[in-house]
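Weekly sync notes, structure subgroup
Attendees: PM, AL, DS (notes)

Item 1: joint prediction request from the bench team. They want all two components modeled as one assembly rather than separately. Inputs as received:
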Amino acid sequence: ETGVTQSPTHLIKTRGQQVTLRCSSQSGHNTVSWYQQALGQGPQFIFQYYREEENGRGNFPPRFSGLQFPNYSSELNVNALELDDSALYLCASSLDVGDKTQFFGPGTRLTVL
Amino acid sequence: AQRVTQPEKLLSVFKGAPVELKCNYSYSGSPELFWYVQYSRQRLQLLLRHISRESIKGFTADLNKGETSFHLKKPFAQEEDSAMYYCALNPSGGYQKVTFGTGTKLQVIP
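Output from the run, pasted for the record:
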């Protein structure tokens, strides 16, 4: 059984740029959630995707967008990067939308200069 | 609005001493509560959830709806329990909007 993987591990961008982060769900999982974790804080829910549709969104502006593909892998896109977007971005998958047990990936560390 | 509060950033206990990591929540409906743990250089992982009512690695947590609390307890701390602990709330139902607390770092002193 393959766990949740994320790429890249680290990323450095400049303000105003766009970034795409990628996540492969655990085998058999059709639901994926994305979180932003700033230094010293708990993860903050960005959104969730279930069978390629957005199934809930946290308090993040529209420049944070996502995609889920037929193989249930997922992308997080952030446009017009701001300094405050610097954080660890976590992806978590669950077996189904009703299953609240989530399996987390190792995260992507994004630094915006 | 849902909120999770973990009042302690750092909790230091001696090996063998009891541990209690506090978690209070605010939510108008029936939430599901979780504890996640992150050991050094490892990913975040689920420790336990209130509906399971089980003990994992000696840890237990009871949902107290009257006090809106979900404190994590262990009678005798072990060095390997040193980690970051996060309390999380998820609304019941198919919709997921998980709210995490800010976390408590547990340091077990040998």
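Discussion: The two ends of chain A are 37 Å apart (CA to CA).
Action: AL to compare against the crosslinking data before next sync.
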